[in-house]
Specification:
353 residues, mainly alpha, Cytochrome C Oxidase, Chain A, two-stranded parallel sheet, 11 helices, 2 strands, globular
């Protein structure tokens, strides 16, 4: 928004704070463009793949409506350390960021209850032993269940990022990429991989080339990401900065506390790379080599508590869109108005050619 007119020479300079504010105005909601398709699969397909039904359709609708209202006016939680934005608006965004955690809690409860419904329909018993009755031989389901497990830990670490004061401990450290590798890097990525394990064979009309390789790939991603992200979180707590070529830093020898976790980051990343290779090989071979016909249907889950039990207000968009618009106006209007009115757009650029 600011760099393009600056690049064309229409403006003499830019302003870092205004540019960052506009970036996070759109940058954080974009995460939900990736996450919500994963949620759609968890709600509408995973219960069927588990052999059961969605626990509550009205709860799923409420969760999506909450995401609609709360996913946009939260971007300033990325800017707690930025000067020039009043602390009251940072605090307001902190409250909304904690609020957007609530629909994820609804999703966690709803999806786990749906998995339990499927496992008990397959003969599962006990308080937790029903987990063993899930179809762990299905790579599509396994990948998505493992993605959910990682997302739970990613949500917990995200609460630290959302905190107005505790965030200062981990701001701009390796903790942050450790967090989003659990959310975007696993909850979204591994779910999309799991979806493709039934979608590509369905579109191709041929069975998945190697189901065992797909299972190994999903578990390898889970283990690799666990090692990688845990080590990144630890390094963040120990003060290691992000966006830094640590291996070439002159102060690495002065940080003995980092030495144990850095090789673990490399190990986790290596396992992730191998897992990604397994995935792409399996997909390529499914498209090009697999010849066994596949009789597949799109998994579509029914609900224990169906849409007919949902309040009528959950079927209407305009009240929720109005609330979303009001929250966006309240959360961003005063800040952007102040920055636009007081910003001289005078920060010069660097000529790199």
């Amino acid at each position: 928004f600011l760099l393009i007119p600056w690049s064309f020479g229409w403006l003499q300079g830019t302003d870092a704070l205004l540019a960052r504010t506009l970036f996070w105005f759109s940058g954080h909601p974009i995460v939900y463009f990736w996450l919500l398709p994963a949620y759609i699969s968890w709600y509408t397909m995973v219960p069927k793949q588990a052999g059961g039904r969605l626990f509550s359709d009205p709860m799923a609708r409420a969760s999506f409506i909450l995401f609609l209202m709360l996913s946009i006016p939260v971007g300033i939680h990325h800017q707690y350390a930025d000067p020039g934005i009043h602390r009251s608006w940072k605090l307001f965004h902190a409250f909304l960021t904690f609020a957007v955690f609530f629909p994820s809690l609804l999703t966690f409860f709803n999806v786990v209850a749906s998995l339990e419904n499927g496992a008990r329909a397959r003969g599962g018993r006990g308080l937790f032993l029903w987990v063993g009755k899930l179809p762990w031989h299905d790579p599509s389901l396994v990948a998505q269940v493992l993605a959910m497990v990682m997302f739970a830990f990613g949500g917990i670490s995200g609460l630290i990022n959302a905190s107005y004061n505790v965030n200062l401990v981990v701001h701009n450290t390796a903790w942050v990429p450790g967090h989003f590798h659990l959310t975007v890097g696993t909850a979204v990525t591994l779910t999309f991989m799991g979806i493709s394990y039934w979608l590509v064979p369905y579109l191709r009309g041929r069975e998945l080339w190697n189901r065992q390789l797909a299972l190994v790939q999903a578990w390898l991603w889970f283990v690799g990401m666990g090692i990688f992200s845990h080590s990144m979180h630890r390094l963040g707590l120990l003060g290691m900065p992000r966006r830094t070529m640590i291996g070439s830093s002159t102060y690495l020898g002065l940080q003995p506390n980092w030495q144990a976790d850095l090789p673990m980051v490399a190990l986790g990343g290596t396992l992730l790379f191998i897992s990604a290779l397994f995935y792409f090989v399996n997909m390529a071979m499914t498209v090009a080599v697999s010849r066994r016909p596949a009789a597949l249907d799109i998994p579509s889950a029914e609900a224990v508590s169906g849409p007919e039990e949902a309040p009528r207000i959950l079927d209407q968009w305009w009240p929720w869109l109005a609330v979303a618009g009001l929250l966006i106006l309240l959360a961003y209007g005063p800040t952007i108005a102040q920055l636009v009115s007081t910003t001289p757009l005078s920060s010069p650029g660097y000529r790199v050619w």
